Amino acid sequence: MICSFSCATKAQNEKNALLCRNDIEKYSYDTLLSQCYHLSYSVYQDSITNDCFQSPKLVAGNRNIRQLSETSYPMLYKNLGYIGADFGKFFLFVQSFG
Fold first, then answer.
1. pTM exceeds 0.85, yes or no
2. CA dihedral (9, 45, 31, 66) positive or negative
3. Burial class (CB in 10 A: 0-12, 13-18, 19+), 54
4. Per-residue pLDDT for 53 more than 90?
5. Hey, which end of the chain has fewer CB within 10 Å, N or C?
6. CA separation for the pair 56, 96 (Å, rounded)
7. What's CA 96's distance to the chain center, in Å?
8. Which helix (H) or strand (E) holds 13?
9. Cα 31 from Cα 82, distance rounded (Å)
């Protein structure tokens, strides 16, 4: 049995932190849903690993309801998921990894 491990170096962590601060592609608008809800996109840095992550959050007004998914940054937006349909009182959140 062969096991391999990798350790992040301080230089890599600093590079990731710099990427998060300086090179984040801004998602310029929220996705509006019915019933005063919307999806808000955010990119953030993990406080323990210093890795960058991105996620859509379900928001009502100024209150975050739930983080719907999460993936490392800079993965494609479609890997986070998207609204398949909005039916008024509920909506369909779809994830595609193809």
1. no
2. positive
3. buried
4. yes
5. N
6. 14
7. 14
8. helix 10-22
9. 9
- pLDDT(12) > 60: no
Rounded Cα distance between 14 and 3, Å, is 27
Residue 91 is encoded by which pair of tokens? 């909506």
The end-to-end CA distance of the chain, in Å, is 32
Classify residue 33 by its DSSP letter: -
| Continuous segment of H or E residues that includes residue 31 | strand 31-32
Q: Which residue has the tokens 């391999």?
A: 4
Q: Is the dihedral of CA 29, 54, 88, 85 positive or negative?
A: positive
Q: Cβ contacts of residue 94 below 8 Å, gap of 6+?
A: 81, 82, 83, 84
- Residue the block writes with tokens 């009182």: 89
